[in-house]
Design a protein that fits this description.
By secondary structure, the protein is of the alpha/beta class. The protein has 5 helices and 6 strands, in the order H-E-H-E-H-E-H-E-H-E-E. It has helices at residues 11-19, 35-39, 55-63, 90-103, 114-122, and strands at 25-29, 48-50, 76-79, 109-112, 126-130, 138-142. The longest helix has 14 residues, at 90-103.
Amino acid sequence: MLRGIDRHLSADLLHALMLMGHGDDLVICDVNHPAASIAADTTYGRLIDLPGCAIPQAAAAILSVMPLDTFVPAPVWRMQVVGDPEGIVPVFGLMQAEIDRAEGRPVAMAALERFQFYAAARRAFCIVRTSDPGPYGCFILRKGVIDLPRL
């Protein structure tokens, strides 16, 4: 165990987060997402599972160590509700609240049509599958920069 590290961050997830650079994308998804098949096409190349973890918990854990990109208008994307592009499901609000809390500011979230989301997920660095039942618990987070003091 390590101090100050959220208990939901597995060694595999921490490794992937450390490998990611500015502008790399991470997908957080629910159990319905075709995560295993899409993960094979990502940079990391394999699925990262967070069993027993809901999407807001996973987001809180990840965002406790990973900043969001401030150089793009919307560093977070979500999947649109099929057949209702303006539709809202509860997980959207839960995720927005977690993102805003972690960043300490309102953060824009854009929406992608289902198959556009899948295509973007295939280009992501990695896929993190939670145990969240969904539906529409699919989000892409773009990693930002940590401004560290020079040694």
